Amino acid sequence: MPRNATTMTIANPLLADWTTPFALPPFDRIRAAHFAPAFEEAMRVQRAEVDAIAAQADAPDFDNTVAAFDRSGRLLGRIEAAFQALAASNTSPEIQAVQRDLAGPLAEHDSAVMMHAGLFARMDAVHAQRHALSLTPEQLRLVERLHVDFVRAGARLGPDQQPRYAEIMARLAQLTTRFAQNVLADEAGFQLELSGDDLDGLPPFVRAAARQAASDRGLPEGAHVVTLSRSLIVPFLTFSTRRDLREQAWKAWVGRGESAGETDNHEVARDILRLRQEQAWMHGHASYADYALANTMAGNVSSVNNLLDDVYARALTALKDERDAVHASLRDAGVAAPFMAWDWRFGSERVRQSRYAFDDGEVKPYFSLDRMVQAAFDCAQRLFGIRMVRNDAIPVYHPDVVPYEVHDGDRLIGIFLHDNFARQTKRSGAWMSSLRLQSRNGGVDLPVIMNNNNFAKGAPGEPTLLSFDDARTLFHEFGHGLHGLLSNVTYQRLSGTSVLRDFVELPSQLFEHWLLEPEVIARHARHWQTGAPIPETLVRRLQEARRWGQAYETVRYAGSALVDMAVHSRQDKEPPADLPEFEAATLARLKLPPEVGVNHRLLHFQHLFSGASYAAGYYVYLWAEVLDADAFDAFKEAGNAFDPVVAARLRQCIYGAGDSVAPQQAYAAFRGRMPSIEPLLRKRGLLPEGVEY
Ligand SMILES: [Zn+2]
Question: Which of 113, 359, 379, 526 could lock 514 by a disulfide, CB 3.0 to 4.6 Å apart?
């Protein structure tokens, strides 16, 4: 198709210079129809950049090849980031169609770049002489990381294999897109309407959230619905005395992606697994897990399984007491055995209330979203000296998004967008992403970082009240956000969260620890109506009650991670004929009690199947928890949760370093030694006090 680049640049806001504040995407002018031509042009531009690097007459060196490659593809990068933001947080049928149509071509473009023979020959040449080039440590790291990227993307495969490899990558991109869209459709399509005694047992905050969800979905005033949004369905399962409705809600929740029809993910997941197996074999690995783990801190399947097996076995033992208590409580409540997965949370909450005289509804008024956001910002200020300054002139893609400038002293270091509420056009879960990564390779790029949560919005005129777990999620994502905002590297490839994937949860999980600090709670947890601080006795009960149910959470999480490892460690060509059956058999082998259930079922397990970043990688949270539990001890040892010396080292070695230093080295530089697993086991209540591990 003939194209006139000049007129298109004027007509298409994605291709024009962004003259908005801080050069954010001009969301108000971007339409879905702009993306296809903009992507096409941006891919052409990057191909030209890469061809030019490859065609240079000068011998390959660090700057003309490696740094030049790091500078390439910026136009595509900014368009892709804007697109991903809309696709994840404010999608539409038109955006979804673009996503389906372009998943393949974008993956083909990536393959063409990463398998560009002339470019890789130069990369390979620089890599071969890297120790003789007087490079800085960061430059050396960049050469090595990029070389790994190229090899893992197929640059070393023979010309007879490369077309097939590119085809696999394109097909995987299409299938993972479809998987995610199917889950979103099942989530958006479900609602359980409640009226009269359907509401039995639900405390006021759950009723309010259900009323708000109904009004968001255009139902008449006074209607209540339960949706599959985590911050609504979990409290519903916890408090509803209606076993029949709990069963309905539970089955819809765990059945996402599983129902026959257009959104059925069964064959989609099998196709993904079959192609991943072929991909791994082309690289000479026996299984996809072997391929995936070769590029991690863990390094191989057995070190992951060792950690998971150890923690799972301890948690299963610890679960016995919890299980007895939950069963007794359910019997006491008149629930007939056999107990089912939709009964556990209900029984568990009754135990929590009777043992600790504590319920979530009691603390919620002290954990309003606004106050918890302030708490997270305040912790960042006390640790790292940065200030968040709201600036509504910054363009956003939805009125719920709150934009901030991030200041370090008198220096602007980045932009932060906070998108906290659930809506039907947003995918479930919570995540950090970026519109721009920090770097200073050929111009200074300030990071533009986003946090998405899925909190159930408070009714009009009322605040959004968080559960303690919601507040933890808020801190978690803000920890990732800080990893992006505090990034202080030269090269974009090494920026912020672009680290090995089993290191990436360290900054996020570590930041959760500050929410648990009594002094943080005392300062920020204040009643939304009266402003009164949370009573100390309630904090104590909260802390004690939090110890309850740890085995349940650990067993469910580790069970899911072990299913992930099992499904990706297979070495045969054909995936299991029936994935739910494979999952059930794996869990039965693990002796996971059926009334416990797992965090995610395979057919909606987005970590594994929408994109590949957590495939054979759900374990990373536990891996990082070994690190974060051990890392926070550094503050405890200093006797101050905000110790300035430890905090400065933390910023330099972890939050600011991105992937410019190998993770083992970065950790050792922060802690003075490698991590120990003991703090993790203690934190999860899996290590009896006084026992040496
Ligand atoms: Zn995370």
Answer: 379
* DSSP element (H, E) containing 83: helix 74-89
Measured CA to CA, the distance from residue 523 to residue 533 in angstroms comes to 7
- Please give the distance, rounded to the nearest whole angstrom, from the Cα atom of residue 442 to the centre of ligand 1: 30
Name the nearest CA neighbour of 275 among 349, 164, 359, 351: 164
Q: Which of 45, 40, 48 is nearest to 98 (CA)?
A: 40
Task: State in Å: Cα 219 to ligand 1 middle.
Answer: 34
Q: Looking at residues 590-604, what average pLDDT do you find?
A: 92
- Separation of 626 CA from ligand 1 center, angstroms? 14
pLDDT at 689: 55
Q: Exposure of 691 by Cβ count < 10 A (0-12 exposed, 13-18 middle, 19+ buried)?
A: exposed
The burial of 537, by beta-carbon neighbours within 10 Å (0-12 exposed, 13-18 middle, 19 or more buried), is given as exposed
Residues with CB under 5 A from ligand 1 (ion): 505, 508
pLDDT tens track for 9-64: 558 999 999 999 999 999 999 999 999 999 999 999 999 999 999 999 999 999 99
Give the separation between CA 293 and CA 502, rounded to whole angstroms.
9
Distance 478 CA to ligand 1 centre (A): 9
Residue 10 confidence (pLDDT) = 56
Look up residue 192 and give its amino acid. L
* C-alpha closest to that of 617 among 631, 606, 628: 606
Q: How far apart are CA 4 and CA 12, in angstroms?
A: 12
Summarize the confidence of residues 64-85 as an average pLDDT. 97
Per-residue pLDDT reduced to its tens digit, 570-581: 999 999 999 999
User: Using an 8 Å Cβ cutoff, are 364 and 465 in contact?
Assistant: yes
pLDDT at 688: 65
Give the contacts of 221 (CB within 8 A, at least 6 positions apart): 215
Going from the Cα of 100 to the center of ligand 1, the distance in angstroms, rounded, reads 26
pLDDT of 115 = 97
CA of 67 to the centre of ligand 1 (A): 29
Q: How far is the CA of 506 from the centre of ligand 1 (A)?
A: 8
Strand-pairing partners, residue 445, are: 439
Ligand 1 centroid, distance to 476 Cα (angstroms): 6
Instruction: Out of 477, 505, 583, 595, pick the active-site residue.
Output: 477
| Strand ranges (E), 165-275 | 192-194, 224-226
Strands (E), 169-240: 192-194, 224-226
632-657 burial code (b ≥16 CB/10 A, e <16): bbbbeeeeebbbeebbebbbebbbbb
Is the CB of residue 236 less than 8 Å from the CB of residue 206? yes
Q: Scanning the structure block, which residue is given the tokens 């090494």?
A: 494
Instruction: For residue 556, give the amino acid letter.
Output: R
β partners of residue 415: 405, 448
Confidence band for 104, pLDDT divided at 50, 70 and 90: very high
- CA of residue 592 to ligand 1 center, whole Å: 25
User: pLDDT tens across 464-523, in order?
Assistant: 999 888 999 999 999 999 999 999 999 999 999 999 999 999 999 999 999 989 889 989
DSSP-assigned letters across all residues of 464-497 = PBPPHHHHHHHHHHHHHHHHHHS---S-GGGSTT
56 CA to centre of ligand 1 in angstroms = 41
What's the predicted TM-score (pTM) here?
0.92
Per DSSP, the residues of 148-179 read: HHHHHTTTTS-TTTHHHHHHHHHHHHHHHHHH
Q: How deeply is 262 buried, as exposed, middle or buried, from its count of CB atoms within 10 A (0-12, 13-18, 19+)?
A: exposed
Could you confirm whether 138 is annotated as catalytic? Answer: no
